[in-house]
Design goal:
This protein is mostly helical. The chain has one domain. The protein contains four helices and no strands. It is flat and about 60 Å long.
Length: 95
């Protein structure tokens, strides 16, 4: 039987999530910024490209594996531009 391991000072803590406290003002600010973003023209540009992947492929085609990677990266950025606020709101609600 191997000898018991020596535990560090923090190893006896069972729930690290209890120590992570979020500032309510930060959550409120994220919600306000996300709400304002909904009204910007940039959001609608991202939606235009992200809603129709087939149209995006037809209009932004690049040949080869590097082209496919580039197209995927560009389309991913448009989709991130559409949905970052949802991720932010989930973060704010979760904390």
């Amino acid at each position: 039987m191997p000898p018991p391991r020596r535990l560090g000072a923090r190893a006896d803590r069972t729930d690290v999530a209890d120590d992570a406290e979020a500032d309510p003002a930060l959550g409120a600010a994220l919600i306000i910024v996300a709400g304002i973003y909904q009204l910007t023209p940039f959001k609608y540009v991202c939606l235009t490209h992200c809603r129709s992947p087939f149209d995006f492929v037809l209009n932004h085609w690049h040949d080869g594996p590097a082209g496919a990677l580039r197209m995927g990266f560009e389309h991913g950025l448009y989709c991130l531009g559409c949905c970052w606020f949802l991720m932010t709101l989930l973060f704010a609600a979760g904390t």
